[in-house]
Amino acid sequence: VPGYSPSFKKPPAMLRLKRKRLRSSESAASAPPSCGAATPRAPSAPARRNPFSSLENAPRAAGNPKLRERARLPPPLAGESPSAVPFWQLLEPVCEDKPIPRPESSDRTDDLALTNDLHLPVAVPEVPSSPKHEFPADWSIKTRLLFMSSQPFTWTEHLKAQEEAQGFAQHCRATETNLPQSIQEPKLSTELRCAFQQSLVYWLHPSLPWLQMFPRIGADRKIIGKASPWSQDEALQQVLMSEWSVSFTSLYNLLRAKLCPYFYVCTYQFTVLFRAAGLAGSDVITAVISPTTRGLREAMRSEGIEFSLPLVEESRTRKQKSSEVNLETEADNSLEVSKSTEDTEEPSPSDDDDDDEASFSWLEEMGVQDKVKKPDALSIKLHKERHEVHVDHKPESLALVKGTNTFTLLNFLINCKSLVAVAGPQAGLPPTLLSPVAFRGGTMHTLKARSINAKARVHLAYKDISSLEIVGPVMPHALHSLTMLLKSAQRGAFSAVLYTHEPTAVFNTNLDNASPALNKESIHKDLPACGLHPKTLNQLSQCPTLGKHSIRFLEMKDYAYTWKS
Fold it and tell me: Composition bias, kind Low complexity: at what positions (predicted)?
């Protein structure tokens, strides 16, 4: 066949061939038809579709020069329909004359994911908060942050060796950095770049470079297939757990001495957040566990650990108040009738026991008590605790431990057999410890940051936008530190999309009613030595206000925050 080559062509050759065909078809379409030329096919006749192509593949546009020319046009203006633009056109390089490097498959996937993110958060949230100079503390762990601004993020790129070393030194020495409200040339500000490196540092144990140590809940797919020599070696497991116990105890001692503000214990089933006295509106050390199960709670009770279920108690109180309101409205203005009705609706525990014993007396009266199988004590107990069992594995199962009971919880977790998986990809792997400060056995890590210049859709038009992506376990102090830097570098105008590790969103529950910080001055006296910036420490000291939710969208305009949870 003329013009047919049986050899396979490489991608560059195919691209050159497509461009050559495109130029020839354009020239043929623009040339006037000759008198003796055959009559072209009517435009109404549909082109034959390739059965092996997808619905949105190029052959549909390839048959029509107008459609092909439209695909090469720049993004639509305000009057055009945005749905006609493919989503990959949202990322356009700023410098058109620069050659585009050939990306790897993982980078291509990240770029496409970033493309989808760039045009989503530009829209204003439906129910934003009122503008304030500070956003509430978010105690959840973020897995990814995406900042966007009209000002470039070039100041975050290519840190010098001296700037990187200075950032590490500032972190280890807990150096406080105070920046002006606005920086005219962020890329030339060494102080800003060092502070950026300082805000990316966190500490982790155990550190296994070939394994992703966070998140641990639902991480089997990412860990499976990786080398785990400890899974079948009990001696190695004991060594790992011994080192982990030393690190865990070191963190708790730092917390009790107010040299560590908080830390996380991430297991394959639940997460524990330890907070120092004075944080989150509490005057004692607190530990919150989520999610929990009845088995875990029973084991904690058997070890003498006193704890409460704040969300379960809150729901119970709310139902009680609503029932009291209904009783008052339905009563016939008689206090005695209302009181008796409330007593019958809420019997005491002793009345419940009497009812349980009397509930089977009618079997004896009928003489069939030996023929009917009565439920055992365990079934009766489960029936009484059905409301508590119903919240297992849910955010409502959040357990709160306070004061000296946190030390008992420490010993319980160290000796708990179910803390480590016995089967599966995470078998024998100790829980992950995350901390904002150094501790014994901890390894210094940094969050991954990269900046991208792209075009994002705002309403029906496109505008140049710069983005900064932060990936890793972003703890509350890191989120606040980064926003303080962006406030100065981006001149008080940026927005952010926050991706939350969902099991930790419930840590924003307000526990102020349990142990309010009455004397805040004496409690906060030693907290400045914990290594956090004073403004960050002040934010984390406030009572949580987000409830079971976390901040999903954060925006700053004219140095004022709005957010959506």
Answer: 25-54
